[in-house]
Design brief:
The complex is a heterodimer of chains A (388) and B (460). Chain A is mainly β. Chain A contains three helices and 29 strands. Chain A has a five-stranded mixed beta sheet with strand order 14-15-16-17-18, with no helix packed on it. A four-stranded antiparallel beta sheet of chain A has the order 1-29-28-27, with no helix packed on it. The longest helix of chain A has 8 residues. Chain B is mainly beta and 460 residues long. Chain B is globular and about 85 Å long. The relative contact order of chain B is 0.14. Classes of the chains: A mainly beta (388), B mainly beta (460). Chains A and B meet through β9, β17, β18 and β22 of A and α1 of B.
Chain lengths: 388, 460
């Protein structure tokens, strides 16, 4: 049962003792950590060895309570000023991540929500609901700007493309729909999967979409393409009726069901989480699994993971042992474990410019926690976030 | 970037129509990123289409007569339109207003046949008037000027009596570096001017005579040039090198006949050409036939000694204009009914892609089993090897190639944003005086801009 038992000897304490060259491996709780030496600042990529020895020092900053049912997603707005969250109740909550204040409830959906996505200008927020619709909200007014109807079943996941002109959503009947966000019209439907589509994500250029589903097929599809890691044969009929083309199938030996996928910030790689308690980074062009991150527990829930690039380069993921794990991107070691949630951590998000993580948990916890790392500067220190 | 996923082989030319945009346009031009397409219309409107959603996203309403040309700034933020209403208008697409407000208006003395931005600085504008005059308009504070480019007629003695001065200028283009302005005349001459000094540095007669020059296009590397002239022939030339006098640093005047490396025409129908465009790699040339009953695009394979490669048939609506995508095997061709056909190169479905680690072969191959193929390996060894393989560092957030479509590969290296590498095709030249002059007081077209997201209100 001990989640740490499965790890190799890279427990946090050992690492601190043996590898850290910073003067203070153990940061006292609640004391501001001294800034790292300037030479260790991450913007210089050719110093990986130095960066590797750095550790994050995230501490709990706020606990946001208010959700009454399991939380399914938390998302920072791209300008970093707001945090949106949703859960099995019918509302979207908008928070200030800095003051922990609840700013607004967005009401209108008639069933629980599964996923959220912000437009790149932080003005609009799209939400995917079990009432089979997607709503695009104007966050400032709290009004529904578009109501996208067309899915036949519960909508489980969605994402904007980088220019926020398109929206992709996946539903529980296996369909993926691509919407023109401006008009609110469906422009394409891909009958891509046979079961819950659990994740869909555009690459930067918006010419690919990666998706995965509980049927074991992991697809990437842009309006016309798909990349997949699949574990079952897809019947050709499915693909003939869509205009999507399958580009690639990424396969490993194991038969774990992949439940979350996303492109890396530069769209060169794909990060996937799977039910064999492993997070993997794929080079989808060369069919290779580049990195495997293990140590957490994930066998049942759809748990998200994400990239953290504002300070060091980390992978942050939730876990069924009620903890949040932070791995070093390169060395694949667990560099920090965040404890505090009382139940499975399913939702994880990283702040776009500051060293901040938001996590959300289910049933017996129902809280959102904001974690911050003040020991290092984010890449961009931006004025917009200091307004409060 | 996904070109390599779709076709691991090389760049090709488009073969089929992917979409048709009902745009009522007289011509359409891709922006340097390939995300948008700018359309000029007879009613004076210019529209910007987003190719992601295949929908018009901006309406530029400022002209009262037909739009004659449209050009994009280097980073697509500014759009320039010229019109028969004597105006040239610069629009800022980063503006938060919709419809966008004009950024600058330039009033000319006659209907404007075409206008274009300097490739390095969108405050320098070249305008060709329907009266056959060419003006170089500089909007920068320190250089504010409007200069006519004309052929000096003082030194008649040295020239062969027949000056091309009397001929109207029919086409004017910056070369890819922006250092020179190339002007075609109704007498079949090509005149070359230095953009900074505004002095004429060369006059080329096309060998054999060609009639009026109707069009000019440069390959992206700037070394080749194709002309479209009234004798229904497209000619490709190697752009000559313009030597500078060592004392003054000024180009020595060159009066030279140019011999085309290739001539392209339609030997059977003898059709004229409405438009001509190079592919981004310069390996293909597309010519739009002025056929009154068909929409035909001819493709020639330049790398294969200019051999005719294929004809694309776009149906019954005759072609009016075409433009090749800045980075892909895609062409936008405009019909005389105003529809825009987007051509692409479709890929056959590869069913092998559905299975991981499965490779399709074109022909049967005698399979030879490797010696160790079915050996059972030590599991620990496999895990160890996998761990080792995972030790390589990965780079998840450096965005390379993001600007690649905007900056062509020149002389074998990537040209980066404004920091000195030459955009010109002239080998070995670094940032010289002309470039520095052009980079002075550049405006904010720096590549980091976002088009405001708009939502239609008709819903609910």
């Amino acid at each position: 049962m001990d989640p740490l038992a499965g790890m190799d000897d890279s427990s946090t304490d050992d690492d601190n003792a043996s590898q850290t060259t910073e003067d203070d491996p153990q940061i006292p709780e609640h004391a501001p950590a001294p800034p790292p030496p300037p030479s260790a600042a991450p913007p210089l990529p050719p110093q990986p060895s130095l960066a590797r020895r750095e550790k994050p020092h995230y501490e709990l900053r706020h606990t946001l309570t208010g959700h009454t049912m399991s939380i399914s997603a938390v998302k920072f707005s791209p300008d970093g000023t707001l945090l949106a969250s949703c859960g099995a109740e019918n509302i979207v909550k908008i928070w200030s991540p800095f003051t922990a204040e609840l700013i607004r409830n967005l009401t209108g959906h008639t069933a629980g929500l599964s996923d959220l996505s912000w437009s790149s200008d932080s003005v609009y927020l799209a939400s995917a609901s079990d009432d089979t619709t997607v709503r695009i909200w104007e966050v400032d007014t709290g009004l529904t700007h578009k109501h996208l109807k067309g899915h036949a079943k519960w909508v489980f996941c969605l994402n904007y493309n980088s220019t926020s002109t398109l929206l992709v959503s996946g539903a529980c009947d296996g369909d993926i729909k691509i919407w023109d966000a401006r008009k609110g019209k469906c422009v394409k439907t891909l009958h891509a999967h046979l079961d819950y589509v659990t994740a869909v994500h555009f690459n930067r250029e918006s010419d690919l979409i990666v998706s995965c589903a509980l049927d074991g097929l992991m697809f990437v599809t842009l309006r016309c393409v798909s990349i997949l890691r699949n574990l079952r044969i897809v019947s050709s009929r499915i693909w003939n009726t869509s205009t999507g083309q399958c580009l690639k199938t990424l396969a490993e030996d194991h038969n774990a069901i992949c439940q979350q996928v996303q492109f890396s910030p530069n769209s060169k790689y794909i990060l996937s989480t799977a039910h064999d308690s492993a997070i993997r980074l794929w080079d989808y062009k060369n069919h290779r699994c580049l990195k495997t991150y293990t140590g957490h527990t994930n066998a049942k829930y759809c748990i998200s993971a994400c990239f953290s690039v504002t300070g060091g380069k980390w992978i942050v993921g939730g876990s069924e042992d009620h903890k949040v794990y932070i791995w070093d991107l390169q060395s694949r070691e667990i560099v920090q474990v965040l404890e505090g949630h009382q139940d499975v951590v399913v939702a994880v998000a990283t702040h776009p410019s500051q060293n901040m993580i938001a996590t959300g948990s289910i049933e017996s916890d129902l809280s959102i926690r904001i974690w911050e790392d003040h020991s290092r500067q984010g890449h961009q220190v931006q004025g917009t976030t200091t307004s409060n | 970037m996904n070109e390599s996923l779709i076709s691991p082989f090389n760049f090709s030319h488009p073969t089929a129509v992917q979409t048709s945009l009902y745009a009522l346009g007289s011509f359409a031009r891709f922006d340097p990123s390939g995300r948008f397409i700018g359309v000029g219309r007879f009613d004076g409107l210019a529209t910007i289409w987003d190719l992601e959603t295949k929908a018009a996203v901006r309406w530029l309403d400022g002209h009262v007569k037909a739009v004659t040309s449209l050009d994009w700034s280097r980073h697509s933020q500014y759009v320039l339109t010229s019109s028969k209403d004597w105006n040239v208008i610069v629009w800022d697409l980063a503006s938060v207003y919709d419809p966008p407000q004009r950024h600058a208006t330039i009033r000319c003395d006659a209907p404007v046949s075409s206008a274009s931005f300097h490739p390095r600085n969108s405050q320098i504008i070249l305008a060709l008037l329907s009266t056959g005059e060419v003006y170089l308009i500089d909007l920068r504070k320190n250089h504010r000027s409007r200069t006519e480019l004309y052929e000096p007629d003082g030194d008649e003695d040295g020239t062969e009596g027949q000056s091309s001065r009397r001929y109207a200028m029919t086409v004017a283009r910056f070369d890819t570096s922006g250092k020179y302005v190339f002007i075609g005349t109704s007498g079949g001459y090509i005149l070359v001017f230095n953009t900074r000094t505004k002095a004429m540095i060369a006059r080329h007669r096309i060998a054999g005579g060609a009639g009026t020059i109707k069009g000019l296009d440069f390959a992206k590397n700037g070394r080749r040039l194709v002309t479209n002239s009234s004798d229904r022939t497209l000619r490709q030339f190697i752009v000559p090198h313009y030597p500078r006098s060592p004392e003054t640093g000024v180009e020595i005047f060159l009066d030279q006949e140019l011999e085309p490396t290739h001539r392209f025409n339609d030997p059977i129908n003898k059709t004229a050409w409405h438009a001509v465009s190079y592919s981004p790699d310069g390996e293909w040339l597309a010519g739009g036939a002025a056929d009154a009953a068909n929409h035909k695009i001819y493709i020639w394979d330049i790398s294969n000694d200019g051999q005719f490669a294929s004809t694309l048939d776009g149906g019954r609506e005759p072609l009016a204009h075409l433009h090749w995508h800045p980075s892909k095997a895609s062409i936008a061709s405009t019909t005389n009914q105003g529809n825009i056909l987007i051509w692409h190169s479709p890929n056959a479905e590869r069913w092998g892609a559905f299975a991981g680690g499965f490779e399709e072969v074109d022909e049967n191959v005698e399979y030879e089993e490797r010696e160790d193929e079915f050996d059972i390996e030590d599991e620990a060894e496999i895990i160890r090897r996998k761990k080792e393989a995972e030790q390589d560092d990965v780079d998840i957030d450096t965005i390379d190639g993001a600007n690649a479509p905007v900056y062509p590969v020149v002389n074998g290296f990537h040209v980066n944003g404004g920091n000195g590498a030459p955009l010109s095709g002239n080998v070995g030249e670094s940032l010289d005086e002309d470039m520095k002059w052009a980079d002075e007081d550049a405006n904010d077209d720096i590549g980091v801009w976002k088009m405001k997201i708009l939502m239609d209100d008709d819903d609910m």
